[in-house]
Amino acid sequence: MVRFLSPEWFDQIESAGQEQPGPDATADPTDHLSLHQVVTGTPDGDVAYLVMIQAGRARIERQPDGAHPVPDADITITSDWPTATAIAQGRLSTQKALMQGRLRVRGDVARLVGRTAQLVGLDAIPASVRKNTTY
Fold it and tell me: What's the CA dihedral at 30, 70, 93, 29 to 10 degrees?
């Protein structure tokens, strides 16, 4: 078992990358979206990662210095540890967290909203990692 957002969790995601499905043949390969996510107050301090979506596939890449913005990210989403774990466990929806002011979003929000249909069902966390994650 690995703790959510720990260095070991990111290592397992990288190792399990080959489990992820290939690109969607019907998706536009030039259309992409990058989400810079920052989670504050984790047991390991502030943690940041990129979720990159392209050709109907999502992948996660840990960022070495969590507090700094990624200049080419379309959106930056910041939350605290309790909010991030509640969302990851399905105990809190992203929409509810936004309405409660528990997520801070900056960047090209229209770009994100315009891709809502693309995002439904995408999961950047391989199933083998998800089932072995603790919070």
Answer: 10
Quick one: tokens of 118? 């693309």
HEC profile of the chain: CEECCCHHHHHHHHHHHHHCCCCCCCCCCCCEEEEEEEEEEECCEEEEEEEEEECCEEEEEEECCCCCCCCCCCEEEEEEHHHHHHHHCCCCCHHHHHHCCCEEEEECHHHHHCCHHHHCCCCCCCHHHHCCEEC
Instruction: Look up tokens 């891709």; give the residue.
Output: 115
Question: Domains of the chain, with CATH numbers?
Answer: 2-118 (3.30.1050.10)
pTM: 0.85
Residue pLDDT, tens place only, 16-65: 875 555 555 566 667 788 999 999 999 999 999 999 888 778 889 898 76
Question: Rounded to an integer, what distance in angstroms lies between the CA atom of residue 62 and that of residue 7?
Answer: 9
